[in-house]
TrEMBL record:
Pfam families: CPSase_sm_chain (PF00988), GATase (PF00117). Its EC number is 6.3.5.5. Residues 1-170 are annotated as: CPSase. It comes from Shimazuella alba. Keywords: Amino-acid biosynthesis, Arginine biosynthesis, ATP-binding, Glutamine amidotransferase, Ligase, Nucleotide-binding, Pyrimidine biosynthesis. Composed of two chains; the small (or glutamine) chain promotes the hydrolysis of glutamine to ammonia, which is used by the large (or ammonia) chain to synthesize carbamoyl phosphate. Tetramer of heterodimers (alpha,beta)4. This is Carbamoyl phosphate synthase small chain. L-glutamine binds at S45, G219, G221, L247, Q250, N288, G290, Y291.
Length: 355
């Protein structure tokens, strides 16, 4: 079946439909990872987005239950140059077509993803639509222009109830803004008892669990759309060690008086180099974010920059000068991505031990 990708500027790409049929509207972004497409489409941070994979062949090793980063995918659609109709891997359980159809996610293949990616790099991320409808472009464009993108992505992906994973080690409250499963796994592997709470849990409610530390998870959207989370973090600072990842990093920075801004096309991929300023060492990192902390806004705060992106110089990590709190913009839980950055979880463990 024919499918079309329509951008808000009127550009039309015609290709082949795979996955679910129908229509989906979201922000068109691109990811440069060569593998890990299953972890990418199940990452809650992609809520509301149409994901373009820059690597040309997607789906060649299929899908399986173990590699999901959430129980339910939240992305709006998938855009690829070529999708593999038949998967070849001993762990494969479903083809990419079957998996997307099961989760009602529309996909389009057979388009020039290189041209699309260059367009996004030049003009920035933009609203788009994947559709299998035969309606005229003028009708589709009018509907696209009249549709507003939602700003409640964190509320959509966050857990609705408290979940506890008992263990014998430190108790960590994981504030779920759209947490990937691997954050939870990294904590459990270090014998932590993990208490997962909804994004709008207050500081008073979190402290009732008597945590040894608080983890601020990754998540989708603009950090300024969840002011209640900023207020909660302000109530936790100085009372318990804090470690923030991605959206959690941005929210910690806002709570300390810094500011954030939207990037032109964001950082999304499993191959982004980041430099740790204290050691001078560079790491390859997995990233997925469209917003960044403004460096100039840190001047009158108690935060200092700990990591920077080598590609564009943007802030990739901060740490509090006086209190036990730090954060990184990238994903040290690394699924998908390199395994270089697990040491940050060890640093969090050391911090909870009071050292």
């Amino acid at each position: 079946m024919k499918a079309r990708l329509l951008l808000i500027d009127g550009t039309v790409f015609t290709g082949t439909s795979f996955g679910a049929t129908g229509e989906s509207i979201g922000e068109v972004v691109f990811n440069t990872s060569m593998t890990g497409y299953q972890e990418i489409v199940t990452d809650p941070s992609y809520c509301g987005e149409l994901i373009t994979m820059t690597y040309p062949l997607i789906g060649n090793y299929g899908f399986n239950r173990e590699d999901n980063e959430s129980l339910t995918p939240h992305c709006q659609g998938l855009i690829v140059r070529e999708h593999a109709e038949y998967a070849s891997n001993w762990r494969n359980e479903q083809s990419i077509d079957e998996w997307l159809a099961m989760h009602h996610i529309v996909g389009i293949s057979g388009i020039d993803t290189r041209m699309l990616t260059r367009k996004i790099r030049i003009h920035g991320t933009m609203k788009g639509m994947i559709t299998t409808s035969e309606e005229p472009v003028e009708v589709l464009l009018s509907r696209l222009q009249d549709t507003s993108l939602r700003t409640d992505q964190v509320a959509q992906v966050s857990t609705k109830s408290v979940q506890i994973s008992p263990n014998n080690g430190k108790r960590v409250v994981l504030v779920d803004y759209g947490a990937k499963h691997n954050i939870h796994r990294e904590l459990v592997e270090r014998d932590c008892e993990v208490v997962v709470v909804p994004y709008n849990t207050t500081a008073e409610e979190i402290l009732k669990y008597q945590p040894d530390g608080v983890m601020l998870s990754n998540g989708p959207g603009d950090p300024k759309d969840v002011p209640e989370s900023v207020q909660a973090i302000q109530g936790l600072l100085g009372k318990v060690p804090i470690f923030g990842i991605c959206l959690g990093h941005q929210l910690l920075s806002l709570a300390c008086g810094a500011d954030t801004e939207k990037l032109k096309f964001g950082h999304r991929g499993g191959n982004h180099p980041v430099k740790e300023l204290a050691t001078g060492r560079s790491y390859l990192t997995a990233q997925n974010h469209g917003y960044v902390v403004r460096e100039a806004s840190l001047e009158h705060t108690a935060l200092r920059v700990s990591h920077v992106a080598l590609n564009d110089g943007t802030i990739e990590g901060v740490e509090h000068k006086e209190l036990p709190a730090f954060s990184v913009q990238y994903h040290p839980e690394s699924a998908p991505g390199p395994l270089d950055n697990g040491y940050l979880f060890d640093r969090f463990m050391t911090m909870m031990e009071g050292k």
